[in-house]
Amino acid sequence: MARNGFAEFLVARRGELRPADVGMPDGGRRRTPGLRREEVAVRAGVSADYLARLEQGRDTNPSVAVVDALADALLLEGAQRHHFGVLALASGNESRCPGSESPTEQLGETIRAVLDALQPTPAFVIGRRLNVLGWNHAWADFATPLGLIGEHGEANPVWYTFTDPRARRTLRNWSAAADTMATALLRAKLRWPGDEELLGMIDALKREPEFLERWKPHRVGGEPVSSVLEFDHPVYGEVDVPFETMTTDRDQSVVVWLLDQTATRSQGLRLVHNRAANE
Length: 279
Known about the structure:
The chain has 279 residues and is α+β, with helices and mostly antiparallel strands. It is 41% helix and 11% strand. It contains 12 helices and 5 strands. It has helices spanning 5-16, 37-44, 48-55, 64-73, 78-90, 109-118, 137-143, 157-163, 165-170, 174-191, 196-205, 209-214; strands at residues 123-126, 132-135, 228-233, 237-247, 253-257. β4 and β5 (253-257) form a beta hairpin. α2 packs across α3, α4 (64-73) packs antiparallel against α5 and α8 (157-163) packs across α10. The longest helix has 18 residues, at 174-191.
C-alpha cells in the first residue's frame, strides 16, 4: 500500500531526529540516520507494530490522542504540529478531498482582463498544477528567450527549473529558486491532495535527484523561501526579479514579476515603463 501524506511525514521526521534531540544516548553506530521506530513508539506510548502500520499506510485512522502523542514524541511545534494534525485527518481519504476531480484548467475572461490590465508589467496565471494558463505580452517578451515557454505554448516554472538545462544557465540563484518551486508544489499538494494529475507530476519530478532532495513534506512552515529570481538573461543581462503571487477563487493564481523594482546592468531593459513620464 502506498504511503499517504501522514505516513510520509512520520518517516521523514523520524529520520531527521537524533537521539540527543530527545535526551537519549547515541547508542553507538546506527544502520540508518534518525531515531529507531521502537524509540519513537516508546516515547509516544504506542507499539512498534502499530507505528509500523502507520508509517506504511496500512492504518489510516489514528485517534486524536495518538496523533498528539506522536507529535510530542517527534518534537513538533507550531506550524509543523498543525500540519501534522491536518495530514492525520486526511489520512487515507485523499480521494475524497478537494481537488480529486482533476478538472481541465482554463483561463477565465476576468483573469484574462487582469493580465491585460497589468501590461506592461510582466504577469501570468498558474493553475493548481503550476501550469501557466495565460500571460501578457510583457511576460512573454521576457520569458521566451529564457526557454520558459515551450514550442507548443506550454509553460510550467517548476518543470522548467528541475528538468530544463537552460534553467541552470539562466538562473543565477538556481538553488534558491529550486527551493521556492518545490515549496510551491508542496503547497499545491496540500491544497488539492486528491488531484491525480498533480500527484502524477510530483511522482515524475521525484525521479530528479535535486527535486527529491528538496521534497520535504514535513517542513511546511519552516524556513522562508526566496521571492526573487536572479536571471542571467540572454537579452537583458543580469536582472533580479522580485515577484508576488495573488490567489483567486478559481484555484488559480496571478504571478507578477516586478521588473520596475529591479536594478540591471542593461540600459535596454524597459519592460516596465514609468507611467508618470508618459503622462
